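Troubleshooting log. The previous structure file for this entry was overwritten by mistake, so regenerating from the original sequence record. Sequence copied from the archived sheet and checked twice against the printout by T.R.
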Amino acid sequence: MNKYQNIGAPPGTLFYNGQQAHERIKITLIEFSEQEFFEQEFYDLSDCLMHVKDNMIKWINVEGVHNLEMIEKIGKIYNIHPLTLEDIVHVDQRPKFEDYDHYILSILKMIIYDNEVHSEQLSLVLMENTVISFQEPEGGDAFDIIRTRLRQAKGRVRKLGADYLFYALMDAVVDWYFNAIEKIGDKVEAIEEEIINDPKHESLIELYNLKRQVIYLRKQVWPLRDMLSNLLRSESHLITANTQLFLRDLQDHSTRIIDTVETYRDLLSGMMDIYLSNNANKMNEVMKVLTIMSSIFIPVTFIAGVYGMNFEFMPELKSPYGYAAIWGVMLCVMGGLVIYFKKKKWM
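Regenerated output below.
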């Protein structure tokens, strides 16, 4: 699918630019208060809306954003701006924050690590007593821990408002970043030991692959910190002072992730330099041995070349000790060069 097919279209035009998908969009409705809890999956938006209650906090999770008609219906029902809907279905967005009159929007990347770093776009819309999340269906899901807390009434999430749920969902996504970083860290340690002890060509390939993953992860994390900073600077009435404290902690987590990613990137660059330096040193050692051998045999080759000339009047050719004398001279020359190289510590 051409990601740039909508070039020139009016602002707010919905165009899905992700992987081609044919699955039905699944809508999960979770409603809760401190005493009550309701959870059900729907494949029809009208059925879902019939179960919505005004006196409870609502989390509507939409899995799949390829059905533009469904996304447009949700936008009309909840009065979501067309530019927001456009950002939701354009799944290659940078993490961003937008503040509107009656809702706020946060877009971030959910990281999935399975020996490769993958990401899927997550869009969170916070309204009064309602959180709507839009995610791609083919990736992982960091929200299971939040669902478990809601079902079992653990922690603060059932006691506080929709803004805390909004924070908790982002916090769950950021925790997945730590999970990916931990696995990458294990690989970095393994390849570092391999490069130092027994570097191979396969090590270089793995090193390049790992560096590419770290750079990709860095591209997802840097805008996340900016998004959280903009969220903290906003004066939206939808976010209480209590939740602001948790958001500041979440921003600290994003800073830690960035520091760790930068450390791994520098470490991998250093390991690549070590690998290339080791290869250069090995080549230098080989060239050193070949040069020393050539230096030892060049004078001997010269002497052999002189006495290999077919001239008739060469006095040494008639001497009965000429052959032994020449051998003696050549051995003395070679021995002298070996002693000289050892004194210079070239051998």
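Strands lie at 26-32, 37-42, 57-63, 96-99, 104-113, 117-127, 130-135. Archived copy saved in two places this time.
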